[in-house]
Design brief:
alpha/beta; five-stranded mixed β-sheet; D-Maltodextrin-Binding Protein, domain 2; globular; 2 domains
């Protein structure tokens, strides 16, 4: 009986502690994102950010994290935050087509070297107000990119652009779609979480993904041929908050959010994604997959003219709309040289 009472007392103490913590939270931030709960971005980036906010607020802010598009599907996550359906998100800007055109300049070939480099470029463009006008409807916390985007297929090893002819390749954004079109592929748009089922059912022949995503979304299970074209593309991400949610916080709690915003967390995100790329690639290597590296990356003579054409077309199209694309692109290239990599 004494052991039972001891256990019961312990359980009661834990329950009381949890209840006390819940009662202590004055504000709850519901943050939704696209990755599975078991994936590295959730465990190594989003949840640690949430935990830090809770700790540094002394428990006055509770951050509830909802993975796998629980609160809103990936294409709707930014608007869900804007409209207050959820309080914050970590999502891909390019899932909202044509909404963040200057931001997506970082996705063009040869801009970012890796995730740390790309994240520094992107956050710096925001901090320098070159892309800030694209985020007037939410409160950006930090921006970042994943690592180098690659081509992954089943059985067909891509060595030259013509090898992509006719292949249906999942693309993440319209920017990457233009690249794939120039490379003779047939781009198929879909958010990352839908790629596994589409590949499994034969809807697509391959995917454009970084190594991180190959592990996060289990695509290494379905592909066995991988082509690394250094600098091919990267994808921009944002952690952002509903303006009303942020404004409802008292100044001292806004300061907690502000302290965990900007370049420090952008580069931390880059470090996480670069580390996850190593894990994803090792997974493919351990499985005995074919991995082909294009010599010279985007500067390879077989690839460069096509990729340069896609970049030029994108920049010119934005300039024709009156957007400072050339200025933003040139600054991104300058930042690439000065940012860590």
């Amino acid at each position: 009986m004494s052991k039972f009472l001891t256990r019961l007392t312990a359980v009661s103490l834990v329950s009381a502690a949890l209840l006390s913590t819940a009662q202590a939270a004055e504000f709850t931030i519901r943050l939704g994102h696209l990755w599975p709960a078991v994936a590295g971005p959730h465990k190594n980036l989003i949840q640690p950010w949430a935990d830090k906010i809770e700790a540094e607020s002394g428990g006055r802010i509770s951050v509830e994290v909802y993975p796998s598009g629980t609160l809103a599907k990936p294409p709707a996550q930014y608007d869900a935050v804007k409209n207050g359906i959820m309080d914050a998100t970590a999502t891909v800007q390019g899932y909202s087509a044509n909404r963040f055109p200057l931001t997506q300049i970082v996705e063009l070939p040869g801009v970012a070297k890796n995730a740390v480099n790309g994240s520094c470029i992107l956050q710096s463009l925001l901090d320098e107000n070159l892309i800030a006008q694209e985020y007037k409807d939410t409160k950006p916390i930090f921006l970042y990119t994943h690592g180098a985007g690659l081509l992954h297929t089943k059985d067909t090893l891509i060595k030259v652009p013509s090898d992509l002819s006719g292949l249906r390749i999942r693309r993440p954004t319209t920017v990457v779609a233009e690249l794939l079109t120039e490379l003779n592929a047939q781009p198929v748009g879909m958010p990352a979480p839908g790629s596994y089922t589409s590949m499994q059912r034969g809807v697509i022949d391959g995917v454009a993904f970084p190594w991180e995503a190959m592990a996060s979304f289990r695509l290494n299970e379905l592909t066995n041929a991988h082509t690394e074209v250094g600098g091919l593309y990267t994808i921009s991400f944002i952690v952002t908050m509903n303006k009303g949610t942020y404004n409802s916080l008292p100044a001292d709690l806004q300061a907690v959010i502000d302290k965990n915003s900007g370049i420090t967390w952008a580069e931390k995100a880059g470090e996480v994604f670069d580390a996850l790329d190593v894990i994803g690639k090792k997974q493919a290597e351990d499985a005995g997959h074919q991995i082909y590296t294009i010599e010279g990356g985007v500067n390879n003579p077989a690839w460069k003219p096509l990729l340069d054409k896609a970049s030029k077309s994108y920049i010119e199209a934005l300039e024709a709309k009156g957007l400072p694309a050339e200025k933003t692109y040139n600054r991104a290239k300058e930042l690439a040289a000065s940012c860590p990599s």
